[in-house]
Design a protein that fits this description.
It is a single chain. This protein is mainly alpha-helical. It has three helices and two strands; from the N terminus they run H-H-E-E-H. Helix 1 runs antiparallel to helix 2 and helix 2 runs antiparallel to helix 3. Keywords: Membrane, Transmembrane, Transmembrane helix.
């Protein structure tokens, strides 16, 4: 339990919300927002423990590729959220003009 931080727990929660929203509401864009943000949080902070030659346990550093992927997923979530807001505004303008 030592390698699970609060960011990883929040990421798991957001990913679970994304999966549930996909199964219940069938809205792929909102589920993608939740899943991208949740998985980005998980990737950015999940650490794995390893044992060295002397038997001492230590946490491996997070690889740069995983950090870049996590940042990409978080930025993607924000961009998808802005796209969702744009679509909602377009739908609101369409219904108000009728």
């Amino acid at each position: 339990m030592g390698n699970i931080s609060i960011r990883v727990i929040i990421g798991i929660l957001f990913s679970a919300i994304g999966m549930v929203s996909l199964f219940l509401s069938r809205e792929a864009l909102s589920a993608a927002i939740w899943l991208s943000f949740g998985n980005g949080l998980i990737l950015s902070d999940l650490r794995f423990k390893q044992v060295d030659d002397k038997g001492n346990a230590f946490y491996k550093p997070i690889p740069k590729a995983r950090i870049y992927t996590a940042l990409f997923l978080i930025v993607l979530a924000v961009l998808l959220l802005l796209l969702q807001i744009y679509f909602d505004m377009q739908e609101m303008n369409t219904h108000s003009s009728i």
